Amino acid sequence: MIPFAKPIVGDEEIEAVKRVLRSGMLAEGKIARQFEGEFAKYVGTKFATVTSNGTTALSTALEALGLQPGDEVITSPFTFIASANAIAMLGAVPIFVDIKRDTYNIDPDLIEGAITARTKAIMPIHIFGMPADMKRIMEIASKHDLLVIEDACQAHGASIDDKMVGSFGHAGTYSFYATKNMMTGEGGMVTTNDEEMLDRMLSIKNHGRGKQGGYSHFRVGYNSRMLDMVAAIGLEQLKRMPEVVRKRRKTAQMYNNLFSEYDSVRPQVADKGFESGYHLYAPRLHSDKMSRDQMVQTLRNNGVGSRAVYAIPCHKQNTYLDISEWRWAKYINYPDYSKVSLPISEEVGATHFDIPVHPMLTEDEIEYISSAFRKILD
């Protein structure tokens, strides 16, 4: 089976972890500080801070932006549920807006219609590594005095007109889960240009401590820190990023060329000037010959790893269909998500599937995958 994901763990990562272990300084410290600095430089922001994973990166950023119970956050339903849950965990309200059929990202044309007096922020999600339309989103946010949090947890290396995602909004969040373009096993990062926000995040993720550390505490906080041995892996992974993204884009272009021969398979589309990081390559199937699920099973039967990651969009998950069971529902009037209809998100959820695009693919494996598709589609 050709896997749909394969983390790169080389001697460099192993030796970096060994150095930290031998140092005896394992908790978040100078290696994490170095990782933050290098990552901020890579993304193009003034500041960055590590967290324990992508979900805590989201929750730390949202809390540092001052979200209060009942505040509404406009976001996409076509994503991993952690995006919406990070909003709900604070007592805020996810307001799901439909996506564009070709990019799978939140449709800017629909955002203003979802804004109410309770709207506090917009959280676009750069799904599968494809940038959302940040220029339009920032214009809308500026017009309505809204905050913007970029969920770039799948979008390491993605850019718009050579400007990295994660550097457009008030904050950008990243995950370093094992399958991501750069990984540390688990881990997260928040980027920002706002020093006051950085200070709030440093306190929130470290038990509410102040800059001086120690045992003086100034707010309710959490433990969302990153181990230095994890940060050491991140530093080595960051060095690999240019080549990793180059390989992913090259493989994606080969798939695009292949599927241009078939009307039944429609790849995710990048708008002009938008460069995906291709965390996943996930086309849509529109065929009278087979269903999406049959395609996934047929590919697996042929030794090609495949799946449908977000077959059920967030607003159709039981989490939100049964939101009355959530503790904040005693105090917050949530929408009746069972009545929310987002037809394009539901269509893409029902038709997309992903195939291997990771940089460890060999030319022979890519050719094998292409041959498998020709056999299935011809």
Provide the CATH architecture of the largest domain.
3-Layer(aba) Sandwich
* Tally of distinct domains: 2
Oligomer type: single chain
The overall strand count is: 12
- Note the run of SSEs as H and E: HHEHEHEHEHEEEEEHHEEEHHHH
Global geometry: globular
> Which homologous superfamily in CATH is the superfamily of the largest domain?
Type I PLP-dependent aspartate aminotransferase-like (Major domain)
Count of DSSP H/I helices: 12
Helix content: 25-40%
* Rg over C-alpha atoms, rounded to the nearest angstrom: 21 Å
Low-confidence parts, pLDDT < 50 over ≥5 residues? none
Describe the structure.
This protein is α/β, with parallel strands linked by helices. It folds into 2 domains: about 10-235, Type I PLP-dependent aspartate aminotransferase-like (Major domain) (Aspartate Aminotransferase, domain 2), CATH 3.40.640.10; about 240-310 and about 345-375, Aspartate Aminotransferase, domain 1 (Alpha-Beta Complex), CATH 3.90.1150. Helix content is about 35%, strand content about 10%. It contains 12 helices and 12 strands. The chain has helices at about 10-25, 30-45, 55-65, 80-90, 110, 135-145, 195-205, 230-260, 290-300, 320, 345-350, 365-375; strands at about 45-50, 70-75, 95, 120-125, 145-150, 160, 165, 170-175, 190, 265, 275, 285. It has a 7-stranded mixed beta sheet, with helices on both faces. A 3-stranded antiparallel beta sheet has the order 7-6-11, with no helix packed on it. Strand 4, helix 6 and strand 5 form a beta-alpha-beta unit. Helix 3 crosses helix 7. The chain is globular and about 70 Å long. The model has no long low-confidence stretch (mean pLDDT about 95).
